[in-house]
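Section 3.1: Structural characterization of target chains.
Under the original work plan, the team committed to producing a structural model for every single-chain target entering the pipeline before any wet-lab resources were allocated. The record below documents one such target. The sequence was received from the expression subgroup and is listed exactly as submitted; it comprises 995 residues.
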Amino acid sequence: MELVVGASEATMSSLLSKLGGLLAHEYALIRRVRGDIQYINDEMASMQAFLGDLSSAAAPQGHDRRLKDWMKQIRDVTYDIEDCVDDFAHRLSHDPGGDVCCAFVVSNVYELWTWRPRRNIASNIAELKVRAQQIGERRIRYGVENPKNGGGHHGGHATGFQAAENQQTRLEIVGTKKPVGVEDDMKELGVWVSLQQQQQPVAATSPHGPSSSSSQAEAKKPDQGVLSIVGFGGVGKTTIATALYQKFGDQFDCRAMVTVSQSSDIEAILRSILSQVMPQYKDGNDQQRSSSGITLEKNRLVAAIGSLWPKGHPGDEQSGGSTLEITQNLKKHLEEHSYLLLVDDVWSASMWEKIKKSLPKSKRGSRVIVTTRFQAVASACIRDKRDRVHKVVVLSGDKPRELFKDESEISEENFKNNIPPRLWEICGGLPLAIVIMAGHAACNPDRQLKEWEKVCTSLLPDSAKGLSQEGVTKILNHCYNDMPGEIKTCSLYLCIFPKGCKISKKRLTRRWMAEGFIGEKDGLSVEDVAETYFNHLIRRKIIRAVEHSGNGKVKSYQVHDMVLEYIVSKASEENFVTVVGGPWIMAPPSNKVRRLSVQGGDSKHQKIMESMNFSHVRSLTLFGSLTQLPSNSLKFGIVQVLDLEGCKDLKNQHAKEICKMLLLKYLSLRRTEIEKIPNEIGKLQYLETIDIRETNVTELPNNICQLDRMVNLLGGNKKTRKALKLPQDMKKETMKLLRILSGIEIIEGPSTVVADLHHFTDLRKLAIYKLNIINGGKLFRELSSSIEYLGGYSLHTLIIDDESSEFLKSLSALSSPPKFLNALELSGKLVELPEWITELDALTKLTLSVTALTTDALHRLSKLPKLFSLTFSLTSANQDPEIATTIWVNLAHSDGEIVISAGGFEELKLLRFSAPCVPVLSFLDNAMPKLKRLELRFSKLEGVYGIENLEDLDEVHLRVHDEAGDFTKFMVDDIAITAREVDKGPRITVDQYHE
């Protein structure tokens, strides 16, 4: 039986901080209560020290059940004391204050006015003191001994996590790794996935007319098939299926990937498929999934592709609707197109039958790949002679060693001298177990051979050959217990999010900070410490990076379902998180609910929630509709984290209810239908983060400036450039702790506009999505001065979209440019680069308008020593005759093509061009020596030359507008088919987008 220590330690640390603050407020305490609070504070400090010793000690022997029960009592009383302290802050939040001369009168009136709540709180504190006293006595009475130093392999983290020593400085691009040990299976299955007849898409006919061979292909029976990949959890089913999907996806007109699990929501599943096979431009992301794995001939990639797209799209209004409407739209669209679907993790034959009935027989052929743990589901997929079942088996031979070494990234010398073969042999060939154990080894690079042998012996006796599937839990247990306490707490928090979801890193880390799990450490800011914790979980293989950002850091992650299942069980055991809905079978909590995650559910789940005690909920996360919550459940008094991102049915009246949650620290209303933030927002004095991005909120009330603890103010829409108008009171020196101010507008107009930002000296990120001010005017001078001033402090990211281009032109005149920038984005009618741009030695991410694209500009930018990603972009919304003229003038000065020569760009790994028309690009010998990925998003491409000169290139991604002409689609398909015949070279990815 294992102990859960990390979460209790984190809760204790948070409580001690609050108790210290409470003792400082003498005005609010009833006589004799101070002594009780001091006693509780001292007792909790001693218990925290005990828990710290326990987390770094050897596994307890002989009285594990008693120790575990005692820890449960500590946890419960800690939660209750924290609730009492928070209730104190909620009910007695105002200092009586007043002038010295009348302080006596004010104090007496205050005491009389608050007598009843203070008496209730005093009574609760007295009861909690007795409980804390009894818990201490009970440990001695029942012989729960002090933990003994393990001196070895079980703890290993007596000094805690050293954040400063675990900072990640390497920037990289998240890529899809090839499956290990299944090369023969991949080759065989690849033959099956490939369409027997290479057909041109319906809309992409040859400009010379249909050939006789294509006519014959049309005359044949459509090539349909279902492949079911079956095997127990962690054996690598999804890895194989994803690799097939990415490698052969471009052979099909449409493709989609969806995770099912134990979900019974067929409408959500079909809607996800529809949004992918009919490209929609929404939420700032291209919903059409990309396909990759196709090699590109290393000579020349050139295509004269189509003309600019027509406006509008017939499918815009079809992404919603009922299940019947979605099914009709699916059938109508897919009948005329070849398609590839990946349906991952199907748990029931009945659900598969529902999905299958909604999919039409394509006239041009189709493939459906299904992954499942159950043979019954795999058998249900066999309905035709083309259908087949593939059973995945564990790795054998040298493959486990190869996978372990690849995932651990341990040096050759260390691997040879200190890593025993038993470390991967005990995993029984199960890929998930091998990967988790590799992460364990990666996080303990100083451990010696004998210590690793002890680990192997503790996990598996010498007589056994390898762990069974159930043994994966044992490995997870060991690796979990090896983590520092603070990392354990953060890992338990992962179960807040649903299975199979792609989760934003920043969303997770900001919530960690709001929960109080993270503080400043080793001289690092709280944000930097959160980053190190996140990177440690990736290194441990607890989470997996699935998407990168342009700055070379992880943008989003996923958790393997078996790992998440383990985390859910641990969180339930600790009463750390209560999950309602989703695939988990979690017993209703016997105690009070502390953190609630509602992940969908039916009437059964709603009945369970009706019986729960929500009065102590301090964190609420909702996925789906607001109607899933019981009545009046938004009236929680001590909620500190409220995450309603993407929640349906959220209206303006709900925002007023939210403003009654006076202890809120984190509030996310992102992607909801809310239109206005009420004036009552000013009551949320503890609020640190408010996220109203991609909503209809365009203006903030003045009262928001009263929130002195505000750190992150996130608004607007990055893709559509819808922006947020700042309140007039922002001019006053308020919100001095602000670190991120994103999605704002500064536009000349009759009302007062804020452009003076000098007092935000802690600001790390400033993102202006809409700027239109008069050159030389007051706003112009204030903003220019503010940027110059803040650049000398903490400003790391600067984003400006200037509609008039006048402000961008003036940047060169800054006497003291922002030299500490890590990321810079200048959009609009930018023509000349700022003179100081080559002085930005710390710059890793740069985004510029395509109007600044010239050969000379690239030559200047090549001198930036740390530049990781470079993007030139222009959206269709920003097009006007002046921009088009600027682009063609630049091309004329560059002799009609953009030439990237040798030398410079020493660290560049990502190069992007996104515009309706991408000019001719020529890469000379030894150009961009470390470039890994080239992305082109266009409606017309003039040509790309010299791809073969990019020796480190792994992938070329072509995104073509879905309304491009027939000739465009024909040429793109011709490029893909030609590239398929070459074995060496970078992958080419071809997909569509809608705008």
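DSSP finds 29 helices and 35 strands in the chain.
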